[in-house]
Amino acid sequence: MINKIPRRLRTILTEFINLILRIVGFVPSHHIRRFFYRISGVTIGKGSTIHMGAVFYDPKHIKIGEDSIIGEGTVLDGRDKLIIGNHVDIASDVMIYNCKHDVNDPSFKTVCAPIAIEDYVFIGPRAIILPGVKIKKGAVIGAGAVVTKDVEEFTIVGGVPAKFIKERTKDLRYKLGRAAWFR
């Protein structure tokens, strides 16, 4: 029983931080939100923005590259590594989970695996990214897709589960723009 106390205290602290970040997520100033996200452990690159209503779970393992956008209401799971590259556009209400329950385990244990999202990726609204996935450079994830496997470079995928649709141009040089003050 004594051995469970430190683990339980860590859980309570993590849940409290998650609650604070959920409240901070609705502050109508990008600069204030970014300040709190950084002190909670999220690494945020230059020029990147996180829109209102984003939800973080255990943020210390989340790294966001430069000039990337995290849309409104997006869920970012940091219980394992979550690396988001440069010039990544994640639309609204996307869910990125790097932990899941093993439904065949008698104790329903949690299984975690890192997620990597490389440069110039676009993830459409309400897509779901599941544990252990690597989305390679320039890939596009269609709206509502459920990504269960790695996505190759410069490919467009969609559906449930996500499947190859076609290739994307390889000449990507865009910048996503500046953060709005009150978004």
From TrEMBL:
Keyword Transferase: yes
Any matching Pfam family: Hexapep
Top-rank taxon: Bacteria
GO MF terms, alphabetically ordered: O-acyltransferase activity
Keywords: Transferase
GO cellular component, one term: cytosol
Keyword Endoplasmic reticulum: no
Family: Belongs to the transferase hexapeptide repeat family.
PANTHER family (alphabetical): ACETYLTRANSFERASE C18B11.09C-RELATED, SIALIC ACID SYNTHASE-RELATED
Protein name in the entry: Acetyltransferase
Record organism: Candidatus Roizmanbacteria bacterium RIFCSPHIGHO2_12_FULL_33_9
